[in-house]
Amino acid sequence: MRIAMIGSGYVGLVSGACLADVGHDVVCVDFDEAKIEALQAGVVPIFEPGLDILVVRNAEAGRLSFTTDLSSAVASADVVFIAVGTPSQQGDGHADLSYVHSAAASIAEAAKGFTVVVLKSTVPVGTGDEVERIIRQVNPRAEIAVASNPEFLREGAAINDFKRPDRIVIGVEDDWARTVLAQVYRPLRRDRLQVQFTSRRSAEIIKYASNAFLAMKIAFINEIADFCETTGADVQEVARGIGMDARIGPKFLHAGPGYGGSCFPKDTLAFVRMGQDFGSPLRLVETTLAVNEQRKRNMASRVVAACGGSVRGRRIAILGLTFKPNTDDMRAAPALAIIPALLDGGAIVNAYDPQGMHEASLLLPSIDYAESALAAAEGADCVVVVTEWAEFRSLDLRSLKAAMKSPVMVDLRNVFDPAKLAAYGFAYTGIGCGAAP
Ligand code: UGA
């Protein structure tokens, strides 16, 4: 299959490289010349484990190329994916569809022969209809079918998620697009993979409903964590207990400082707006959003409490800045709510993150950055674990304690075993574990 991927950002690049790796002929398009030049030179502009190897290998094999020339890429493609950004519209939280609409108009002008246009960007319900309308209006003779094929990639695990997905959702309105897309994904087929063909609108909703449900699961366990703290229980035991019920499942039940990232906060907000627009309010999603924002803001007060009621003049070491491990992404990261609140309280903050410090320094310019977790902890009154990077699990606790002024730890991800930390002489606060009242 000859595939054009419009948009060489996170989703486009991962999808394009993976589709090339399973044997398709893929050209990734972007209007950002610097990005395309870098990719042509084998330099991947984002941090995603394994992506650089995949890009170079497939480019060398001649299955993957990069261009700013949308017209020629589309003209020679059987399938055109739209994987452009859909950021939150300034002010109102609706998804901004201007890139999607302009891609549709450009595709309409360039398409030659039968072309399946596939929406991979996360778009509100009805966008497939709108894209089809735009294409037919710009070029009434275009021979196209429009499909919806949402992505379920997690940052940091995106290549595995693409190549070994739980399910592939394909929303189509005609048999021809269905046959073509079945062929695109045929190389990924294996025993337990479910391919679900749905209507276009159902596929669009499946994407938002999936993210909203996962966000709700996290907000739920975070609220249960607070309840465990008050009532003298342990949220990790509770999560394990409820997760053993196959109807609930064990995943996404890790209590923490609230979810962040480029997807859950943006998509839940856009979903809420959609509900309002269609006059069918999504109240659970609305509450999830509000509860999560509140949670991120509340986290700093745990640090204040661990420091005896005030952080004024105290040195606080922050371990982990990104919204989760294995990414350099700082978007909507809990650290962005916690650190400013600590600074407001008069703290002196020294932070360390294995990948996120460049990004973080643009957003939080007034704190210090250290070259390692131990260096951040030097002279600290309190260490706060904000992101559960694997390297923190193997920290030498004796050296950590020796580096600090006073051995106080607030572990917002339950990385450490409280008993072990106590044995090393730390005053330890985790999430969701309280003494009986
Ligand atoms: C999420 C979804 O998991 C993907 O399926 C989806 O494709 C993607 O959004 C998207 O829409 O593009 P991602 O944002 O990369 O992926 O990150 P997740 O691994 O889902 O984590 C999101 C946030 O939830 C992180 O801040 C993480 O720390 C938090 N989280 C996750 C918890 O606090 N507890 C958990 O149990 C799980």
UniProtKB/TrEMBL annotation:
Annotated SUPFAM superfamilies: 6-phosphogluconate dehydrogenase C-terminal domain-like (SSF48179), NAD(P)-binding Rossmann-fold domains (SSF51735), UDP-glucose/GDP-mannose dehydrogenase C-terminal domain (SSF52413)
Positions bound to substrate: 152-155, 207, 252-256, 260, 324
Sites where the protein binds NAD(+): 30, 35, 86, 122, 155, 266, 331
Gene Ontology BP term (one): UDP-glucuronate biosynthetic process
Active site (catalytic residues): 263 (nucleophile)
Protein's pathway: Nucleotide-sugar biosynthesis; UDP-alpha-D-glucuronate biosynthesis; UDP-alpha-D-glucuronate from UDP-alpha-D-glucose: step 1/1
Domain spans labelled UDP-glucose/GDP-mannose dehydrogenase C-terminal: 317-418
Keywords: NAD, Oxidoreductase
Catalytic reaction annotation: UDP-alpha-D-glucose + 2 NAD(+) + H2O = UDP-alpha-D-glucuronate + 2 NADH + 3 H(+)
Annotated EC: 1.1.1.22
GO molecular function, one term: NAD binding
PANTHER family according to UniProt: UDP-GLUCOSE 6-DEHYDROGENASE TUAD
Stated family: Belongs to the UDP-glucose/GDP-mannose dehydrogenase family.
NCBIfam families: NDP-sugDHase
This protein's name: UDP-glucose 6-dehydrogenase
